[in-house]
Every structure is written in C-alpha cells, then in structure tokens.
Write a structure and sequence with these properties.
Bound molecules: the ligand Cc1ncc(COP(=O)(O)OP(=O)(O)O)c(N)n1, ligand 3NM, magnesium ion
GO biological process, one term: thiamine biosynthetic process
Order of helices and strands: HHEHEHEHEHEHEHEHEHH
Pfam families: TMP-TENI (PF02581)
Number of helices: 11
Structural class: alpha/beta
Helix content: 25-40%
CATH topology: TIM Barrel
CATH superfamily: Aldolase class I
Largest sheet: 8 strands, parallel, barrel
GO molecular function: magnesium ion binding; thiamine-phosphate diphosphorylase activity
Shape: globular
Low-confidence stretches: 8-19
InterPro entries: Aldolase_TIM (IPR013785), ThiamineP_synth_sf (IPR036206), ThiamineP_synth_TenI (IPR022998), TMP_synthase (IPR034291)
CATH architecture: Alpha-Beta Barrel
Strand order of the largest sheet: 1-2-3-4-5-6-7-8
Distance between the termini: 35 Å
Number of strands: 8
Cofactor: Mg(2+)
Strand content: 15-25%
CATH class: Alpha Beta
C-alpha cells in the first residue's frame, strides 16, 4: 500500500504526468450482465447489441462456480468477438486467463492489478473498483490498471453498495489523468447526463438495460441520446 494522502498525490506532478493529456473519445456503454442468467441470455445479449453501440460486456455471475461461469461464457464470448465488443470477466484473474478474455474487472478484494498484469500480459484490459476514493483510483493507476471505476452513483438493486461518489470525482479524474474512468451504479438513460457531463468515459449499466420494459434492445437504444453529448 502506498503511503501518501489524496492531497499529496493530487499535487504530485510526476504521477499526473504518467498519463498524457489528449483527446477523450465520447462516453460509451459498458454493459454488465445480470447476476444470474438463463438459457436464453445469448439471444438477449445479441438483442442488446442490436440496440446501439456497446464498447464492452462484463460477465458478472455472482455466486456461480468457475466451471459454470466458463460454460456460460463460451457462446457469450463468441458473440462479443463477432460484434467487436470487449469481453470482460468479473472477479477472477484465473478465469480471465483460462478463457482468453479481453479484460478482467477487479474489486478491492479480488486481486492485485500488478499480479493480474503479470499473469494476463500487456494487452488484457484490467479494471479496478475505486468506490468514491481518489486515493484508490490513483493507486490503481499507479498499479497499471487500464480503467478505474467509481460508484455507486445512484441507488441500485443489483448490488449492495456502501459508497455514493459525487459526479465531480469524474471531472477531477479526467482533468488530471488520461486513464479512462467508468461510472457505475443505478445508472439509467434518465439520470446519466450529469455523469457524462462530468467526464465519464464509460457508463457501466446492468438493470436499466436488462429490466427495460421494452426489452434489452430498447434498453441500449435509450442511452443513445445521452452518450457522447458532453
Ligand atoms: C465496471 C465495474 N465497476 C465496478 C464493479 C464492482 O466490482 P466489485 O466491487 O468487485 O463488486 P462485484 O461486482 O464483484 O460484486 C464491477 N463489477 N464492474
Ligand atoms: C456491479 C456494481 N458495482 C457497483 C459499485 O458501486 O461498485 S454498483 C453495481 C451494480 C451495477 O448495476 P446497475 O446498473 O443495475 O445498478
Ligand atoms: Mg468483484
């Protein structure tokens, strides 16, 4: 654990200089699977992809054992490859390695990003949960993460959450660092605008897509109006 405060890090020009300032692409959608999926989920995911541009898909099956996640992953990973959507495994560096996933998402208790990099190599995307903490985000950047995730910005029934960042953490991050930031937690097409305006590079969304009353395709399409409008 690096021993310095948020304030010290924020003022450290060397740390900030690790990331070149430059062009930020428009905010994109990062789709998170429901925590439990049925046999029909490949079709639902294809429908979601038909609804608009999705940059990444995270397979997040909480409580399922590795074999079950690996079985579920096979057709989903194939579909993602066909649609040029990055396929990200939640929680498990070992499973991401075994499947040849495009990325792994690590919570604060899911493993060390430096260890993940050693195991997965330079081209696999490593994301790190940073809750509402500038300090955790700077540590993740220093450890070689490819993105940092802040949340939960809004109440959500998908996961029990303890943190509620202000959108200004996104503008603070993007003003200092080129490393992409992800906003997550209770995000809908109706409440996403402040996050996009604050500089989120990705909106990570689950419930608003999978529980959309008109289906997952409409759930993705609903975000078209707010994405990239900062
Ligand atoms: C993009 C993204 N951000 C945050 C999380 C949450 O990760 P974690 O804190 O490890 O919680 P679980 O998702 O494992 O319950 C995420 N999965 N994806
Ligand atoms: C998986 C997850 N992580 C969060 C965090 O705050 O780190 S919130 C969350 C749930 C995301 O699903 P929904 O879009 O349905 O709220
Ligand atoms: Mg996790």
């Amino acid at each position: 654990m690096t021993d310095f405060t948020d304030e010290e890090l924020a003022l450290d020009p060397h740390f900030a200089d690790q990331f070149e300032k430059g062009f930020r692409p428009p905010c994109q959608l990062y789709l998170i699977s429901p925590p439990v999926i049925g046999d029909d989920f490949v079709r639902q995911l294809a429908e979601a992809f038909d609804g608009g541009n999705v940059a990444a898909f995270q397979l997040r099956l909480k409580g399922a054992d590795e074999e079950a996640v690996a079985r579920a992953a096979e057709p989903l990973q194939k579909l993602c490859a066909e649609r040029e959507v990055a396929f990200v495994i939640n929680d498990s560096i070992a499973l991401a390695k075994r499947l040849g996933a495009d990325g792994v998402h690590l919570g604060q208790g899911d493993g060390d990003p430096r260890e993940a990099r050693k195991i997965l190599g330079p081209s696999v995307q490593i994301g790190v949960t940073c809750h509402d903490s500038r300090h955790l985000a700077m540590e993740a950047g220093e450890a070689g993460a490819d993105y940092v995730a802040f949340g939960a910005f809004y109440p959500t029934t998908t996961k029990e959450t303890l943190y509620r960042p202000d959108p200004s953490i996104l503008s603070w991050w993007t003003a200092l660092f080129e490393l992409p930031c992800v906003a997550i937690g209770g995000i809908t097409a109706a409440n996403a605008a402040p996050l996009v305006e604050a500089g989120a590079d990705f909106l990570a969304v689950s419930g608003a897509v999978w529980s959309h009353p008109d289906g997952a395709r409409a759930g993705v399409t609903a975000f078209a109006g707010v994405l990239g409008k900062a």
